Amino acid sequence: MSEESSKHIFVVTDIPGKHQGIIASEDISRGALVLAEAPLIIQPGHRTNKSIATALQSVSKEDQRAYLSLWSSKSKEDSDGVFKDIFDNNCFQLGEEPRGGIFLTGSRFNHSCSPNVHRHWHAPSGKLRFYAIFDIKAGDELCIAYFNIENVTSEERQARFRKHFGCDCQCDICTLPANELQKSDARREAKAELDSVILSSYAAPRRAMQAILRILAGLKLDRVEEGITDVHYLAFQVCVAAADAQSAKIWAQRFLDSRVLMCGSEYDTRECTKLSSFIEDPRSHQAWGWGTRANLLNLTQSWQDSDSE
Ligand SMILES: [Zn+2]
């Protein structure tokens, strides 16, 4: 059995205008584990049609048929390179490694530029885990992001989508009216510039924190939960450099909470332990007090307020 849990909470079904997709069959709470699935086959970064065909010999006939039913840009009669084409179009990378795996159910998640599900390779169990990052209603489609969407404009996203799938992304964000799409693009461009804003703002921590709050508000509006995590961490770093322990603790806790939401409570014990030690004592961070000192608590708490609305 390559798959565990929760199958009853969704169905894999044909979706008009798309190949197949995954629909919630009941309400799913934010943070819930939707699916944990082991790979059918694993391949290194350098793979060939032959290496994939060999790997497929060790799986059942039923799974071989299921593999061949996955999306491909080549026709199934075109046997030349079809195994590799299917693999390249449907595989998920396993953590930081160049290895990729095929997940027969996980491959059915369609893409959205405002995904409601986040995937995370959990190395200790050898499974790809999918978590709900919003409350999801029965009947809603469950979508993941196939590629980075947080700081990329719709034009760049569409170019990437077209290159891979030969059509336009039809997600809720990409189909917004032109003026709203423009605002969404501006928010994502602002996120792309955040790193440089922060770097140049250690001398002006309040300005950095205000920029962070604007970006967070934009990500919330765009429902890009995945982008919020690393902004929490930047906010933590700004507070550490400004030697504001109370605010640093709050942001470290927010970062930890958002990582747990995306990746489950035992996502990475080493990172968890390190973060917990910073929540305990932000002064132990190597960048403690490096920048201009500032009290950022009011700004920090103003986000907490808007966050809990
Ligand atoms: Zn889209």
Describe the structure.
This is SET domain-containing protein. Residues 6-147 form the SET domain. It holds the Pfam family SET. This protein is an alpha+beta fold and 309 residues long. The protein folds into two domains: 3-165, Beta Complex (Beta-clip-like), CATH 2.170.270; 193-307. Helix content is 43%, strand content 14%. It has helices at 49-56, 61-68, 82-90, 154-165, 178-192, 194-199, 205-221, 225-241, 245-263, 269-280, 297-307; strands spanning 3-4, 10-14, 20-24, 33-37, 41-43, 92-93, 100-102, 110-111, 117-122, 127-132, 141-144. The strands form three sheets. A four-stranded antiparallel sheet has the order 1-4-10-9. It has a four-stranded mixed sheet with strand order 2-3-11-8, with no helix packed on it. It has a three-stranded antiparallel sheet with strand order 5-7-6, covered by helices on one side. Helix 8 (225-241) runs antiparallel to helix 9. The longest helix has 19 residues, at 245-263. The chain is globular and about 65 Å long. The relative contact order is 0.10. The model has no long low-confidence stretch (mean pLDDT 89). The structure holds zinc ion (ZN).
